[in-house]
User: Which sequence fits this backbone?
């Protein structure tokens, strides 16, 4: 029987937290009514630890596609590659118990990350 280390346990928790938060945001966003025909979709690649929240559909006669959120898990840290939300996803992760040093705001250039209250990578 394999023994789980704290590292694999934390990565498993991080996967669970990310999927839960993205699913909640997708469900909230899909409840709204409007003239556009679009959906908010989740994309979970648990083998490679890539997670996205996407806006897909049509707005009038134009195809609409954009990435709202993109997170990766690398070296047992959550890397926020893109955050296009108003409220952000870093603080909800902290509220769930993820230490700030385990969250990297990858959308900031590496030289600037040291000035945030989060991990540097």
Assistant:
């Amino acid at each position: 029987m394999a023994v789980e280390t704290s590292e694999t346990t934390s990565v498993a928790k991080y996967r669970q937290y990310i999927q839960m938060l993205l699913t909640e945001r997708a469900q909230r966003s899909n409840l709204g009514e409007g003239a556009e025909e679009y959906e908010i979709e989740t994309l979970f690649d648990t083998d490679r630890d890539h997670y996205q929240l996407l806006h897909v559909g049509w707005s009038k006669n134009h195809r609409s596609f954009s990435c709202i959120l993109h997170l990766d898990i690398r070296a047992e840290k959550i890397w926020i590659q893109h955050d296009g939300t108003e409220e952000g996803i870093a603080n909800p992760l902290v509220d769930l118990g993820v230490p700030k040093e385990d969250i990297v705001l990858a959308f900031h250039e590496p030289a600037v990350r040291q000035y945030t209250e989060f991990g540097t990578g």
In short: The radius of gyration is 16 Å. The longest helix spans residues 6-30. The chain has three helices and five strands. Strands lie at 37-45, 50-59, 62-74, 77-83, 103-104.
